[in-house]
Amino acid sequence: MANREMHKAVCSECGQECEVPFVPDPNRPVYCRECWMKRRNSRRRY
């Protein structure tokens, strides 16, 4: 498996600098791993 190119971004929720495996789109939010997991888990609750 080839290494993905990582791109620096700032989390839209906590403001922490992070790296993502895609080019961030300024029109869409980007989340660090922690915030992404929190959002993902909160959507699964019924």
Please provide a brief summary of the model.
By secondary structure, this protein is of the alpha+beta class.
How many domains, in number, for the residues? 1
Total beta strands: 2
What's the overall average pLDDT, rounded?
90
Which outline best applies?
A: globular
| Structural class assignment | alpha+beta
Biggest pleated-sheet summary: 2 strands, antiparallel
- SSE string, helices as H and strands as E: EEH
What is the CA-atom radius of gyration, in angstroms?
12 Å
Unreliable segments (pLDDT under 50, ≥5 consecutive)? Answer: none
Plain-language structure description:
The protein is of the alpha+beta class. It has one domain. Helix content is 24%, strand content 17%. It contains one helix and two strands, in the order ββα. The protein has a two-stranded antiparallel ribbon with strand order 1-2. A hairpin with a 6-residue loop joins strand 1 and strand 2. The longest helix is centred in the C-terminal third of the chain and has 11 residues. The model has no long low-confidence stretch (mean pLDDT 90).
